[in-house]
Design a protein that fits this description.
16 strands; globular; single chain
């Protein structure tokens, strides 16, 4: 074996010999933006360092979980203590109860929660439970919303699939998705037509309330309100996929944002991930006691997992949730994120570059256009060439943004005002070079 210090390029070459595409999740391969992916060695606070020792200000945050930044000392201590007690037991622990209580304490729409190990697993299980509870087969999802790579949901799913230009995935039989209705995001007329035609057969409507897998696109209030009304009218469950937005856009997640805008609003079921694991593999789905009572061992809907409620992951997630409940946490996080996006828009305008941006809590998105898109087709129409050039100009200056135009970005509590100012200054320079 060579004793030479590895480079990003040499590691990528080596990885491609033993891992498909050289990566274990497609968007990491930089195929959308071109160039060589950065192989990360370590991280601390708002920064990551690659194999060549270059430091980057990180606006991916492991795709959302690192809301506190990397290596928060209290979280590290909790994980170290838990690891000393044991990695995995395959038996219940008190900490699982504590984490479930913490989640439910922040989510008024739910009475019980089941812990799993990934967002895909949580989304897949939520769909099975919705079907088992209602006795119906049809489900509705929206173009550009990604709910994990379960077969029934991998249809016009945005995210990595949008990056590679595929509206669906090979290996998914047509009969598996025949009960999945795919509608346009923010299109009230389509959802009304779907319920008019299939209302008695629809088990659930699943949505990303703020879509983060076609960049950053909000569900409009009229759209959200109408879905709630139609689900109530026809006996379907309304499922919020908050894997990305959960405890990231607000302490009460995206559903609390909509509850402020729509009196009495709440989803029937919620899917969580990312932040609740604090960077460890952990996700969950939650609903009323009546709905969750259909799950095994109480009911006929089967779901299980060897590592569900893992003691190290629950320690990491519980410590994270406790910290983000501290007074002023989300106020400061939201202010920093807005400052970043406001700064981008300002310096882009000074450079004569059309740019629009949006943010909520610690989640953001920006588009090289004069207006914010409302659906997947509008996002795709923006094109990606300008973003790709901007991405590499920022990367050269030590700013690590998502390597695809179709992904939202994330600010952490560890990003300082100076980090934000430095990033905006880097953006100003990049815009002038476009």
């Amino acid at each position: 074996m060579s004793t030479d210090t590895p480079t990003n390029a040499s590691l990528f070459e080596r990885a491609q010999r033993v891992i498909p595409g050289g990566v274990n999740s497609p968007v990491r391969a930089f195929r959308a933006v071109g160039g060589t992916p950065r192989f990360i060695q370590r991280a601390l606070g708002p920064h990551i360092w690659d194999a060549e020792g270059k430091r980057y200000t990180d606006y991916i945050g492991s795709w959302g979980p690192m809301i506190l930044g990397h290596g928060h000392p209290e979280v590290v201590e909790a994980v170290q203590k838990a690891a000393l007690d044991g990695f995995s037991f395959g038996a219940p622990t008190e900490r699982e109860i504590e984490l479930a209580e913490a989640i439910l304490g922040l989510v008024p729409s739910a009475e019980q929660v089941r812990l799993v190990s990934s967002g895909t697993e949580a989304g897949m299980s939520a769909i099975r439970l919705a079907r088992g509870f209602t006795g119906r087969n049809r489900i509705i999802k929206f173009e550009g919303c990604y709910h994990g790579h379960a077969d029934a949901l991998l249809v016009k799913a945005g995210s990595g699939l949008a990056t590679f230009g595929h509206p669906t995935s090979a290996g998914v039989p047509a009969e598996v998705v025949q009960h999945t209705l795919v509608l346009e995001y923010n299109n009230v007329e389509q959802i009304e037509q779907a319920f008019a035609a299939h209302g008695a057969d629809i088990a659930c409507v699943m949505i990303e309330p703020i879509a983060g897998n076609m960049n950053f696109v909000r569900a409009s209030v009229p759209f959200m309100k109408r879905i709630r009304e139609l689900c109530d009218q026809h006996g379907a469950l309304f499922v919020f996929d908050e894997v990305m937005t959960g405890f990231r856009v607000a302490l009460g997640s995206a559903q609390s944002v909509y509850a402020e805008l729509i009196p009495g609003f709440r989803p029937d079921m919620s899917v969580f991930g990312k932040v609740i694991g604090g960077g460890m593999p952990l996700a969950a789905f939650a609903a009323s006691r009546e709905v969750m009572g259909k799950l095994a061992p109480l009911g006929p809907v089967y779901q299980a997992g060897t590592l569900s409620g893992n003691p190290v992951a629950t320690a990491c997630g519980l410590s994270t949730l406790r910290i983000l409940q501290r007074p002023g946490f989300f106020e400061q996080l939201g202010q920093r994120t807005r400052a970043l996006m406001d700064g981008f828009v300002k310096v882009a305008g000074e450079a004569g570059v059309p740019l629009t941006a949006d943010s909520q809590g610690g989640m953001f998105g920006f588009f090289f256009a004069d207006s914010l898109p409302q659906n997947y087709q509008q996002v795709m129409a923006r094109g990606s060439d300008t973003f790709n050039r901007f991405f590499h100009l920022m990367l050269e200056q030590g700013v690590y943004l998502a390597p695809a135009m179709y992904e939202a970005g994330f600010v952490s509590a560890a990003h300082t005002e100076q980090d934000i100012a430095d990033t905006v200054a880097a953006a100003a320079q990049a815009f002038r070079q476009l």
